[in-house]
Specification:
The chain has a single domain, classed as Rossmann fold. The chain is an alpha/beta fold and 190 residues long. The chain is 32% helix and 16% strand. It starts with a strand and ends in a 6-residue tail after the last helix. A 6-stranded parallel β-sheet has the order 3-2-1-4-5-6, sandwiched between helices.
C-alpha cells in the first residue's frame, strides 16, 4: 500500500489541504493518507488547541484518510516517519510537502531518515524544485506531482479574517462545516 503522510499545523484546515489529499488519492499517487497535526513546537502565533484542529480535520476528511494526533506529539518529521515505518513495515511511505518547503529541506532534522521514504512535492508559487532536489544523493526519492497546482491559500489570512469577523472573505477557501465549527467554538478571536 502507498501511504501518504501529511504533516502540518492545519490551523485551520482549508480547501487547499483538502484538494491535495483528494488529488493524490483519486489520481493513484496514494492509497491512504495519514494527516498529522503538529504540536506547537516552534511558538507559532495564533495556534489553537490540538483537539480543535483534530476536530476540524475530522469534519473534512473521511474515506482513506486517518487523522492521527498521537504522531503530532513527535517534534520532528523523521520521528513520525520512523514510527510509521514500524507500524507499516511492508508499505511505502510518502511524505507530502509543498514546493515552498523544498528549499530548506536540507535543514530538517535527520533529513536522510526522512529520505528513507518517498517525498511527494506539490508544486507551488512557480518554485523550480529541481534546483533543490538535484543537490540530494537520494533525489530519486522525490516525486513531483506535476499534474496539480496548489491553491495559494494563507491560513494567516483566514485567521485574520475571522478575527475581523469577516467570514465572507473566507467562504470560498474553507469548508462551510469548518467555518460553523470555528464560529460555534469562538476560535481565532484573540
Amino acid at each position: 500500500m502507498k501511504i501518504g503522510v501529511y504533516v502540518g499545523s492545519f490551523n485551520p484546515v482549508h480547501k487547499a489541504h483538502q484538494d491535495v489529499v483528494s488529488h493524490l488519492i483519486s489520481n493513484g499517487y496514494l492509497d491512504k493518507v495519514i494527516v498529522v497535526p503538529t504540536g506547537n513546537y516552534w511558538d507559532k502565533q495564533d495556534i489553537i488547541s490540538l483537539s480543535d484542529r483534530v476536530n476540524m480535520l475530522n469534519i473534512v476528511f473521511n474515506n482513506n484518510v486517518e487523522v492521527n494526533e498521537k504522531l503530532g506529539l513527535y517534534q520532528y518529521t523523521y520521528q513520525i516517519m520512523n514510527e510509521l515505518k514500524c507500524i507499516y513495515p511492508n508499505d511505502s511511505l510518502y511524505l507530502i510537502i509543498g514546493a515552498d518547503n523544498v528549499n530548506n529541506f536540507y535543514k530538517w532534522k535527520n533529513v536522510n531518515d526522512v529520505l528513507n521514504n518517498y517525498v511527494l512535492v506539490i508544486p507551488r508559487d512557480g518554485i523550480d524544485v529541481n534546483l533543490y532536489i538535484d543537490k540530494y544523493n537520494l533525489k530519486d526519492r522525490f516525486i513531483i506531482v506535476k499534474d496539480f497546482n496548489m491553491k495559494d491559500i494563507s491560513s494567516t489570512f483566514i485567521r485574520d479574517s475571522i478575527k475581523l469577523e469577516n467570514l465572507e472573505l473566507v467562504k470560498d477557501i474553507i469548508d462551510d462545516k469548518v467555518i460553523k465549527y470555528i464560529v460555534i467554538n469562538d476560535l481565532y478571536k484573540s
